[in-house]
Amino acid sequence: MTGPESEGSQVRRAVCPGSFDPITNGHLDIIARASRLYDEVYVAVMINKSKKGLFEVEERIELIREVTADYANVRVEAFHGLLVDFCKQRDIPAIVKGLRAVSDFDYELQMAQMNIGLTGVETLFVPTNPTYSFLSSSLVKEVAAWGGDVSHLVPPAVLEALNGRLRQG
Ligand code: PNS
């Protein structure tokens, strides 16, 4: 079938990729906004065997599932290898990324250009909510490790997991 009817029946999919060690309110804001723009949103958690995180990938996935439970069209999966292969296997034509500041742009642009060159997958940049423009998982972990208050920067379930993990030492 061709024409508007067949185009209209296509499911619009996008992926929000990242390390999510752990997910922050900044990530969640981008995922929530992507979920309003697309029919299906995959949150793809990168498996990086050469870098041990604070949380195992399965723990990160559990936390993301918990805090995105209200978004019916969001699903969470791990991936390793190239993001474009994850996209190809699931027929995902678009990557959605948050841009916090101009400093993010150089590397993000390189990745976007590489990815479109590899398989034609597009990257859509969403301006981060200014409330979270300084926010990263690394900073959250550092501040929390030194006893700083990060309760306004991560969802309650993540705060609990973070405090539990840091208490373990
Ligand atoms: O949260 P992060 O660590 O900034 O996320 C980076 C991520 C996972 C989006 C990026 O490293 C990535 O896409 N990795 C998958 C491997 C890949 O496709 N590399 C080529 C990128 S052009």
Explain this structure.
This protein is of the alpha/beta class and 169 residues long. The protein has a single domain, classed as Rossmann fold (3-Layer(aba) Sandwich). It has helices at residues 4-8, 25-37, 57-67, 83-90, 102-119, 137-145, 156-168, and strands at residues 13-18, 40-46, 74-79, 94-99, 122-127. The chain has a 5-stranded parallel β-sheet with strand order 3-2-1-4-5, with helices on both faces. Strand 2 (40-46), helix 3 (57-67) and strand 3 (74-79) form a beta-alpha-beta unit. The longest helix is centred in the middle third of the chain and has 18 residues, at 102-119. The chain is globular, with a radius of gyration of 17 Å. It starts with a helix and ends with a helix. The model has no long low-confidence stretch (mean pLDDT 95). Residues 15-142 form the Cytidyltransferase-like domain. It catalyses: (R)-4'-phosphopantetheine + ATP + H(+) = 3'-dephospho-CoA + diphosphate. Its EC number is 2.7.7.3.
Topology:
Elements: H1 4-8, E1 13-18, H2 25-37, E2 40-46, H3 57-67, E3 74-79, H4 83-90, E4 94-99, H5 102-119, E5 122-127, H6 137-145, H7 156-168
Parallel strand pairs: 1-2, 1-4, 2-3, 4-5
The structure holds 4'-phosphopantetheine.
4'-phosphopantetheine binds next to β1 and α5.
The helix/strand series, from N terminus to C terminus, equals HEHEHEHEHEHH
CATH arch. level architecture: 3-Layer(aba) Sandwich
What is the number of E strands? 5
| Ends distance | 59 Å
Task: Provide the number of structural domains.
Answer: 1
* Largest sheet entry: 5 strands, parallel
**Per the principal axes of the C-alpha atoms, what is the gross shape?**
globular
| Poorly predicted tracts of residues | none
Tally of DSSP helical segments:
7
Rg calculated over all Cα atoms: 17 Å
CATH class: Alpha Beta
Distinct ligand kinds: 4'-phosphopantetheine
What share of the residues does DSSP label as strand, in percent?
Answer: 15-25%
Q: Considering DSSP H and I runs of 4 or more, what fraction of the residues is helical?
A: 40-55%
CATH topology: Rossmann fold
Widest sheet: strand order?
3-2-1-4-5
CATH superfamily: HUPs
Structural class: alpha/beta
Overall pLDDT metric: 95
